[in-house]
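Task card 7
Instruction: Convert sequence to structure tokens.
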Amino acid sequence: MEQSSPTGTQAVDRAAQLLIEVARRRDPVTFSELATASGLAKSTTSRLLTALERNGLVRRDPAGRFTPGEVFVSYAWRGGAESDLVSVAQPVLAGLGEETGETVNLGVPRDGGLVEQIAQVDSRYLIGGTNWVGLAVPLHCAALGKVLLAFGAADLPGGRLEARTDHTITSRAALATELAVVRGSGYAVTVEELEPGLVAVAAPVFASGGAVVAALSVSAPATRLSVGQLPGVAAQCMAAARSLSDLLGHDKEGAS
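Output:
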């Protein structure tokens, strides 16, 4: 029978038992399944899971099921797996989406002068709710792409820069000037450069060692995201990108 006041060692053992059960499952596991598998009282299971969640060792999905937490996923991501990057980033993206109400994307560089969106949180509005996941667009006319270019995570291919709209920057000299501004401000902006009516801001995501590995963006129709609102949204985007960078070990690396 379970003791009402377990020793410290017993508490650690029981927490480890729950953690192993979560980690070994291919799919998210429910609270009831964990309580049954561990043989622990529901009150004990709940208390231990709360402690594990508080410390980033497990997390709950929207359905309340448990999966390995950010600590494990960010450690695994050191190998560079993008699926792990998405797992680490998802709570950060969700938080930024909640703050802004607009579409949030995570982008990574691709060959051929492209940036691909690998994760998205949808806007709360019907207008502007396009699903960009899996789509690759030219670096030079996307806020995500400008960030990757400015911080050395991607390179422009040779040849002419495609004019996606009347506002697209097609001069390499003009683009170089703008990328210098991006490096100084810490964020990039596109106003109807990729698609008419689309405005976006993006900020860099750093991994341990200081390299930029991705970019985080907020995008919306120009009717909702005016030029005057861009600095405020950019500040929110940069704060979220810093949080994600922390999860990837950037700040810890710099402080060591």
